[in-house]
């Protein structure tokens, strides 16, 4: 079974009567979590559950597995419900953790000299985003407008996707050590950080991305708990120079992503080789005393690999001479109105679901 008893991702759905339910997915159906703990899931979302911490996460997961193993519980078919954003997004941070992506992007933006910023190997580079930009998979993505060059305002002509892996914070905290990350991070979901590259290029001098990113960030409807990914853990890639003591450690997750545009596969990035681990990202994020709250979301940045077929965004695919083909067999450049981008991932036999968005013209 694709979403079997070893998986059980969490989400929130609305049924045909308008009732909202917090659920776990099992196959092509869902289990209403109020059957396990009515007070904890009374609101129909995951907020209280995320805040409850690791002991409660483990208790609910074990109870769900036990109930489903009996085979007698009534499930609700996915065809009878509509997934919604499963938790209240508190804050959103996007990192730049892939060495291959940072190198490829650096060669495009800085063709002379070292493509990596001087600080890149010393800390997980990131920027503070807008939680209001986060929408659930399936939400239409309206082409944004912005200042594309001096005196030039209009709809972006260089709309791009970014295939990313995101992490959902449950237990709040500050100055979180690398070794304690799993006491705070509940689970993993796929994320598409939509990007208006012409707007981004003009505004990102001297500061980081702003309006070129803040119009939409799509996340999957299903959150895979870290507890389901124990077999996907791998030693982290070597880091040179060694990180500072408060950033040392963490494990990689062996996740294989696939990106499709209008059903055509164009890239298959691997998350296993991402330079900075999620534990290091969280440790850095909180190292200055900044607090994370329940529902905080932090993302890896574009996941890319060393081969042309492993690029995680069109910026890398088109600018490095490895442009994928569209449905007509023509080289693709930027996203067009009507395009649908779908990102999926697997961890061995476990399915992490998908994040999908359909591009529509400006309103």
Describe the structure.
By secondary structure, the chain is α+β, with helices and mostly antiparallel strands. The termini are far apart. The protein has six helices and 26 strands. The protein folds into two domains: 10-84, no CATH class; 92-360, Fumarylacetoacetate hydrolase, domain 2 (Alpha-Beta Complex). The protein has helices spanning 47-52, 54-70, 99-109, 197-203, 278-286, 314-319, and strands at residues 10-15, 20-26, 29-32, 76-77, 81-84, 92-95, 126-128, 134-136, 141-142, 145-149, 152-155, 159-160, 163-169, 173-174, 185-192, 195-196, 217-219, 224-225, 233-235, 251-253, 256-261, 264-267, 291-292, 297-299, 340-347, 350-360. The strands form seven sheets. Strands 6, 7, 8, 13, 15, 17, 18 and 24 form an eight-stranded mixed sheet that branches.
**Which ranges are low-confidence, i.e. pLDDT below 50, for 5 or more consecutive residues?**
none
Secondary structure tally, helices: 6
CATH topology of the largest domain, by name, is Fumarylacetoacetate hydrolase, domain 2
**Strand composition percent:** 25-35%
In the CATH classification, which architecture of the largest domain applies? Alpha-Beta Complex
What is the residue-averaged pLDDT?
Answer: 95
CATH superfamily of the largest domain: Fumarylacetoacetase-like, C-terminal domain
Radius of gyration using CA atoms only: 20 Å
CATH class of the largest domain: Alpha Beta
Query: Which sheet architecture does the biggest sheet show?
Result: 8 strands, mixed
Structural shape? globular
Distance between the termini: 41 Å
Helical residue percent band: 10-25%
Count all strands and give the number: 26
SS-derived structural category:
alpha+beta
Number of domains: 2
